[in-house]
Design goal:
By secondary structure, the protein is of the alpha+beta class. Among the domains are: 208 residues, Orthogonal Bundle (Poly(a)-polymerase, middle domain); 173 residues, Beta Polymerase, domain 2 (2-Layer Sandwich); 95 residues, no CATH class. 56% of the residues lie in helices and 10% in strands. It has 31 helices and 15 strands. Strands 1, 2, 3, 4, 5, 6, 7, 8, 9, 10 and 11 form an 11-stranded mixed β-sheet that branches. A two-stranded antiparallel ribbon has the order 12-13. The protein has a two-stranded antiparallel sheet with strand order 14-15. Strand 7 and strand 8 form a beta hairpin.
């Protein structure tokens, strides 16, 4: 009875937070302003909290709710002195805020560019019929937040799962019987010599153990975090190996799932027969004795849904992520509690209730407050229903339960703040130099957006065979592209050049191991192609020439790059008048701009490779992570210094050492403390200074 009473109270509060969809038609600004205000009253909230306190017999819960009650009561005195609850929030121009929000999250075109680049990149690298990789998480959705990891889901295509019943094309059968909501057990049936059927359960631990054995050159901080194999260096990277649910089971779920806002997405998935359900090796929060329960994941489907958002919905989602990071993640008491997945789930629930026409730039403050209201209601209730499996509660995590009062306190601080708080918070995340680009031409801003998207593209494949398959994939895609689709074509060409660089490294390693001249020639040809990738694309070819004692070739190659280097480095681009002039040309060749004005910033040397000077061999082979990473400009000056040193030219050494020291200071100023790239670059400076002292 007690629980029913509490649920009834909270359901009434939930209904008050909803805006009736038939009243959310966009007829005029005045009607929108009047009818779409948030229907939440702090006095009513206070009354409902008191009713929850009276209805609860749990001592701990009553204590938490009383603390929350006192917090709201203190705020209420301030609210009453204001002209009105709505006026309290109405201190910031929504149109101005909307422009600022797009500077941080990106315009609709910026987001589409990121998604296109990710799509082309992942297609090029998916060379195996056994595994299909998806970029998920914030980066896969189209965000570029600096604190977000790169999340990749690797789907094992050969080991499909049929839900609840066997299927001739499935390797496993999954059952939810005896499992907690949102989880299943995976079974494999066997037929022994006596024609007797038996089965065994697939263990999560055994599955993850087999995956870990397949990892090569893992980092020292390599950890198993839930279903993911994770590392923090050089950038956060999470890779989750998952088992796909058979397309018939996946489509069966979609056909029975009712939605009001992504029916077009559902139809497209059903028509294209895309598997959007997976089982990942993550167990329930409270654990299971035999390590058998697997999480049912809808990560691929969620990405499809997020990609279908209009830009206001997407930016509201991004703003909620920013608030989460600022208010909870950076607070020692509340970090690792509410996650981005909770925010996404809240938004999905809100979108089911709020009409599509409500999501316009003028309503951005209302949109985010509606989402905050729903999140607060879920926290008060202690239950955040999984969007796809409502009986699964996403707030069962022990840290969320323990810190719930503090989380409510922090979120209410945000909720009761003026809109100017959102503006201030947003200003903390303005990209460096964004004001310089704000008034530049459309082509230049688009080029900058493309460069930021390309920062996620690495182009590596482990083996020569995989590289060749990727090259063939790219050639096939290039043949299908329209000439007008400059972004996709540029992304494909850039990925192709990075893969050619990888081929060059592989060929040079073969030459070092075998001594065959043909391998050296192949490496040189591949790296000659790769030098056109970006501003410092030639640095790998220069490393090869230096290693072979061809100092004059190395000097000429690197000198042409460094002497023309602009002192202004902005958002991964070399920002100068030459760039502005090229952006005025019609048509504009983005591939040419990438070659001359895009910087990857870093040079990475794999510890199993040989394409680097002997002077740093020991540091590369014993580096903390799988790659020894240094800043590109500093490494270029380091190579130039070594060339002059081996040619016994003291004056040249002195100039290059000064340039190397200056470039190190330049990057040190813009990097955070403890950055491995800064530490490694300092090693180059120390080596050069030591050599300079020994010159006669």
């Amino acid at each position: 009875m007690e629980k029913d009473k509490a649920d009834e109270i909270l359901n009434k509060l939930l209904q008050r937070a909803r805006v009736a969809s038939n009243k959310q038609r966009r007829q005029s600004d005045s009607i929108t302003e009047k009818s779409n205000r948030i229907d939440v009253n702090p006095e009513l909230l206070l009354k409902n909290i008191q009713m929850l306190i009276d209805a609860s017999s749990d001592v701990y819960l009553r204590k938490e709710l009383r603390e929350f009650y006192m917090f709201v009561l203190c705020k209420l005195h301030y609210l009453k002195e204001a002209r009105g609850f709505h006026d309290l929030f109405d201190d910031c121009n929504p149109n101005h805020f909307w422009k600022q929000l797009q500077l941080v999250i990106g315009t609709n075109e910026d987001v589409q560019i990121r998604r296109e680049v990710n799509e082309m990149y992942m297609y090029a690298l998916n060379v195996s019929h056994q595994t299909c990789e998806y970029m998920s998480g914030s980066k896969g959705e189209g965000f570029l937040f600096s604190w977000s990891d790169i999340d990749v889901m690797a789907s094992r295509n050969l080991f499909t799962i049929s839900m609840e019943s066997s299927h001739s094309e499935s390797y496993y059968v999954a059952t939810r019987s005896g499992c907690q909501p949102g989880f299943c057990q995976i079974l494999k049936t066997l037929n022994d010599d006596r024609n007797v059927f038996c089965y065994y359960f697939l263990s999560r631990g055994a599955f993850i153990g087999s995956i870990e054995k397949q990892q090569f050159n893992e980092n020292v901080d390599h950890t198993n975090r839930g279903p993911c194999l994770s590392t923090k260096y050089p950038d956060g990277f999470d890779r989750c190996v998952a088992l796909p649910v058979h397309i018939d089971s996946s489509n069966g779920f979609l056909k029975t799932f009712h939605t009001t806002f992504w029916n077009s997405v559902k139809s497209r998935i059903l028509n294209d027969r895309v598997t959007v359900m997976h089982c990942v090796p993550k167990g329930p929060e409270k654990g299971d004795d035999e390590d058998r329960q697997w999480l049912i994941s809808f990560s691929v489907l969620e990405r499809y849904i997020v990609h279908s958002f209009n830009h206001v919905q997407f930016c509201c989602y991004g703003l909620m992520k920013i608030l989460l990071h600022t208010v909870l993640d950076l607070n020692a008491d509340t970090n690792d509690t509410i996650s981005s997945y909770h925010i996404k789930t809240v938004l999905f629930h809100v979108l089911e209730d709020i009409h599509q026409e409500f999501w316009i730039p003028q309503n951005i403050f209302h949109c985010v407050r509606i989402c905050l209201t729903r999140l607060l209601l879920f926290l008060l209730r202690g239950c955040c229903p999984n969007y796809f499996i409502p009986e699964s509660n996403l707030f069962v995590k022990s840290r969320v339960i323990q810190r719930r009062c503090k989380i409510l306190h922090n979120l209410c601080e945000v909720y009761f703040c003026k809109n100017s708080y959102f503006t201030f918070t947003l200003s903390l995340y303005f990209p460096i130099g964004i004001t310089e680009l704000e008034f530049e031409s459309y082509v230049l801003r688009k080029f900058c957006s493309l460069c930021l998207a390309l920062n996620l593209v690495k182009g590596y494949q482990t083996t020569y065979r995989e590289c060749i398959h990727s090259v063939l994939n790219i050639m096939h895609l290039l043949a299908l592209q329209d000439e007008e689709n400059n972004v996709r074509t540029t992304a494909l060409k850039y990925t192709w050049l990075l893969i050619m660089r990888r081929i060059g490294v592989i060929m040079y390693d073969k030459y070092v191991l075998t001594g065959f001249p043909m391998y050296l020639m192949s490496a040189e040809v591949a790296l000659m192609f790769a030098q056109h990738a970006n501003v410092f694309g030639s640095i790998y070819l220069a490393s090869l020439w230096y290693s072979q004692g061809r100092y004059k070739h190395c000097l000429k190659l690197l000198y042409n790059v460094t002497v023309n280097m602009s002192p202004i480095f902005l958002n991964s681009i070399v920002y100068n008048e030459s760039l502005k002039t090229k952006c005025r040309e019609v048509p504009c060749d983005y591939s040419l701009l990438i070659r001359h004005h895009y910087r990857k910033v870093c040079v990475d040397m794999h510890r199993t490779s040989h394409l680097f000077p002997k002077d740093i061999e020991n540091f590369v082979k014993t580096c903390k992570v799988s790659e020894f990473i240094v800043f590109d400009k500093a490494y270029a000056y380091f190579l130039l210094f070594l060339c002059y040193h081996d040619m016994h030219k003291r004056a040249g050494c002195s100039r290059m050492l000064s340039s190397l020291q200056e470039s190190y200071k330049e990057f040190q100023r813009i990097s955070f403390k403890g950055d491995l790239r800064v530490q490694n670059t300092k090693i180059l400076v120390d080596i050069a200074e030591t050599k300079m002292k020994n010159i006669q």
